[in-house]
Amino acid sequence: MQLRKWFQSPRRRNSAIFILLAVVGVVVYRVYAAPTITIGTPAGSSRINSDSVTYGLTDATGVVDESSKSKITWTRTGGTADLDSPHTYPLLAGDMSPSGSHTVADTTPAAPLVDGTIYTLTVSVSDGSNTSTATSTNVTFDTTPPELDSCDAGDGTDFVDVVFKEDVQTADAEDETKYALESPTGKTKSLAGATATYTSGTKTTRITGITLTAGNTFKVTVTGVKDTAGNAMGA
């Protein structure tokens, strides 16, 4: 009865509640939404000549730079052998925060990617409790400039077909200033007014709007045409 009377006093009841909270304690947990990743470059099934990676992050609050959780990984899936695969780059806090677009220019500082190897690129980001990943598959690392497969005028005297060994960039392949025709006497034939049309499926550029002399052999020189990975042809 005396204890009930003691609690009936508002001041004593508040004191008791305060004491109870002080003994029990209050723990507040802050829960973050899982980060979301989108890879900008390289895209899946693309060809590249550098290991630079661009990606976007949303809900990057609370991300952690733990190498086992937040990282960029290149894993060989085909092509040329790569004894150093998988290549792992640990993401630092500055690589993940704030939310938005981020670029890591050198993601394989320990050992470079191998020319001719096909990789799966994985970007993983963790906020400590949630880990999100994004991938680009069938990415080919290519540092070899394109080469010519053949040049042929067929039975005509008004066109030349230039065939490449690999797919090249259309804008370059259709730039007639990147081609030179030399006659048997060593004279360069002007391509002013000529038109170059590239067909990706056959890797062929047809140069029209020219006049050739039947029976003569012409030398074709191609410079500056880039493949889809960005490697440019020399002379």
Layout of strands and helices, then pairs:
Layout: H1 2-8, H2 10-24, E1 36-41, E2 47-48, E3 53-58, E4 71-79, E5 87-90, E6 100-104, E7 117-126, E8 131-141, E9 148-152, E10 159-164, H3 170-173, E11 179-182, E12 188-189, E13 195-199, E14 204-208, E15 219-222
List the defining traits of the structure above.
3 helices; Immunoglobulin-like; 235 residues; mainly beta; four-stranded antiparallel β-sheet; single chain
Give your account of this protein's structure:
The chain folds into 2 domains: 36-141, Sandwich (Immunoglobulin-like), CATH 2.60.40; 148-233, Immunoglobulin-like (Sandwich). The termini are far apart. Residues 15-23 and 26-30 have low confidence and may be disordered. The chain has helices at residues 2-8, 10-24, 170-173; strands at 36-41, 47-48, 53-58, 71-79, 87-90, 100-104, 117-126, 131-141, 148-152, 159-164, 179-182, 188-189, 195-199, 204-208, 219-222. 11% of the residues lie in helices and 36% in strands. By secondary structure, the protein is mostly beta strands.
Rg calc: 32 Å
Number of strands: 15
Q: Indicate the overall shape.
A: elongated
> Could you give a short account of the major beta sheet?
5 strands, mixed
Order of helices and strands: HHEEEEEEEEEEHEEEEE
Terminal residue distance: 105 Å
Average pLDDT figure: 86
User: How many separate domains make up the residues?
Assistant: 2
CATH architectural type of the largest domain: Sandwich
Would you give the CATH topology of the largest domain?
Immunoglobulin-like
